[in-house]
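Reader question, answered in our methods column.
A reader sent in the components of a multi-part assembly and asked whether the whole thing could be modeled at once rather than chain by chain. We filled in our standard form and ran it. Here is what they sent:
COMPLEX SIZE: two components
ENTRIES:
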Amino acid sequence: MGQSESAPLPVREKDPTHDPLYGFQKGRKEREMKVTPEEMEAMKIPLKERTYCAHHYIYYNTCRNRVWPLAYRCAKEKHAYEKCLYEEENPYINIY
Amino acid sequence: MSNLIKCIKKGVILNKNSGLIVTTIRHAGAWNRDWKPGPYPTTQEEREAAAKKYGLHIRDYKPYPDDGFGWGDYPMFEPLSVESGDPYEHWDMPEYKRNLGDLMHPNFDFYIAERYDISKRSKSYFRLLGEFLAIMSVMSFICYYAETHKVPKPKMHRQYPEDGKKHYTFEPVE
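And here is the structure of the entire assembly that came back:
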């Protein structure tokens, strides 16, 4: 398996080894992907951005393209995208 | 108006303001034209007079060549850097390490303490090599150590929606 018990830090390149449903009697909600791979490919989203926050990325960039150069009008979309990225961090720290 | 003319005629202003007289007399001298060197000495008497004026012996006195640059009778001498002066001597002007009446080189501002030191000894090639190796070895050790002992943020990689993988939130199913 990927992760070692004695290592001080989880190995980032490998998948978590612990049971993700441990401690959840009825199970956990699955993360929901709002955009299909075909849509992301059609919108030419960078591979790095094809995460669960991709829909916020799409909203933000389409808004920017629409109102450019008045990009400050997309503050709400930018905030939503960055909030999504921020909330994404918590599971990455807690799972291993 | 007539009062003013009367005051000037009688010298009332000058008599009442002795400070005005003092400052006027003080500023009558020590102008740039008073520090200007005299004309180029041609005869022996002129050379002796110029040497005495600059406080030099006649054998030490050697004026700048009369080539049209306007140095006049100013003596030509080797400059002394401020940096090479004795730091423990009781100078009249410690910041320039010179005493009152010392001759001033025309390029004096080039030889002040934070600029050129004419009597400074250069470092040997052995010492230069040693300094180079010392700095480079320390820097390369730091680079090597930082590369091999990385401290990443303790978190997993980002989750990408792929086929056959399930990713969960932290909300339990009701």
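What stands out: The longest helix of chain B spans residues 125-148. Chain B touches chain A at residues 152, 154-161, 166-174 (CB under 8 Å).
Send us your own complexes using the same form.
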